[in-house]
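so my prof wants the structure for this chain in the tokens format not the other one, which i didnt know existed until like an hour ago. anyway here's the sequence
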Amino acid sequence: MGGFGLMLHVRRAGLYYRVADPGWDDPLNGDYSRRHGGRWNAPGSFPVVYLNRDLVTARAYVRRKFGGLPYGPELLRTERAPVLVSTNVPGDDYVDALSAEGCRDLGLPVSYPLDADGNLVSWTACQPVGQRAWDGGEPGIACRSAARPGGTEELAYFSRPAARSLVISDRQPFATWFWPDRTRKGRQR
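here's what i got, hopefully its the right format
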């Protein structure tokens, strides 16, 4: 991985999803990631709201969280299962970690989110990129999903004080968004 060039951009706007803990007061607040860190921000750095471009990616994110555990999402109690929050992201030019050129420009492998050996690129490799984007005043990073490599997309939305705050447009319980076939079958009875 090389140094940084000029950051390439991609236009993004519209409907995005956030997988959230049902107890969170404001699931579109980036303070949790500011404290604990995430793929694009180190702990104690800056606030990011991590969003999924579609339901396939949101479901993959949940499945990935259960990877290696002796149980799966089917055993979650309803009141503890993640909710799905919908929001409309304002149109802007986000840093491009989607295209091969964008990844190369950021010093990431063109195979991102996987490295040359097929392993996930570490958070410690991505966090300096996020810091550089934050310091440069960028609105966020559009990237390939680490939860489902090979075609899905996420958005790291930077929660800046001057930026328009994200607003919840819909909130769905786990059984409705994660198991849509089960919900549909239950309604047909």
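also thought this was worth mentioning. The mean pLDDT is 89.
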